[in-house]
């Protein structure tokens, strides 16, 4: 069991000072850790340092770029109480439920819902990803590594110019309108259960943290 003297380590992507969480997938993991009520601390990593940190920890990448090269990203958790390293957001939530079943107000995944959560995660990621261009210029990069971080974003997006990662004027209005329509469709899922604010009603589940990670 994790405790205050031996907490889980969450590796997250650093913003500019004062450092705050901003990346969707690490936020999903952070919400899951908070929900389970386990002790953890954050190890902040500048975006250009993510590949070297992941390699040093010996955690293989779980994604690939479009050209087939490894996509080194975060989050990762290291649990000193078990020696486990987990380097995928969804797998982190599964690990927390399995390793700490009695922690927190309940399970992240109610019985027989893991597959449904996996499908929902894919759907939500596909909904939000095309609209990340709306906030690219608002990312608070660490000034000391900002240019390297921008170069990494461009590589991930397959773009050559930082201005290509934004939309302005009428294009922005159209993109916002399309985004609002997609959010409206997503919001309908919250109308099925009337006894609370969450997808499952009064009880939060990992599905809510999937959405919350993007909204953060």
TrEMBL record:
InterPro entries: Glutathione-S-Trfase_C_sf (IPR036282), Glutathione_S-Trfase_N (IPR004045), GST_UstS-like_C (IPR054416), Thioredoxin-like_sf (IPR036249). Coiled coil: none annotated. Residues 13-104 form the GST N-terminal domain. This is GST N-terminal domain-containing protein. It comes from Dendrothele bispora (strain CBS 962.96). The lineage of its organism: Eukaryota, Fungi, Dikarya, Basidiomycota, Agaricomycotina.
